[in-house]
Amino acid sequence: MINDKGETQPVYDLHAQSNREGKRRVAAFFKENGRLPTDSEFRAIGAELLR
Questions:
Q1: Is 7 helix (H, G, I), strand (E, B) or coil?
Q2: Can you name the residues that pair with 8 across neighbouring β-strands?
Q3: Do 45 and 22 form a contact (C-beta atoms < 8 A)?
Q4: Cys-Cys with 12: which of 1, 18, 28, 50 at CB 3.0–4.6 Å?
Q5: In which region does residue 49 sit, left (phi positive, over 0), alpha (psi from -120 to 50) or beta (all else)?
Q6: pLDDT tens across 1-11, in order?
Q7: What is the count of structural domains for the chain?
Q8: What's this model's pTM, rounded to 2 decimal places?
Q9: Does some domain include residue 24?
Q10: Domain ranges, residue 41
């Protein structure tokens, strides 16, 4: 994701954006449910990010 010159590649931004959105969705899940998502709930959140 970062080349030998220290420059970020386009996939780096995509990965960073996915991480931010995933964290935002987990935080929203926690606020709504008072707990972190189970493994299967987390996978569903992650799958939605790929659509």
A1: coil
A2: 2
A3: yes
A4: 1
A5: alpha
A6: 888 998 989 89
A7: 1
A8: 0.78
A9: yes
A10: 10-49
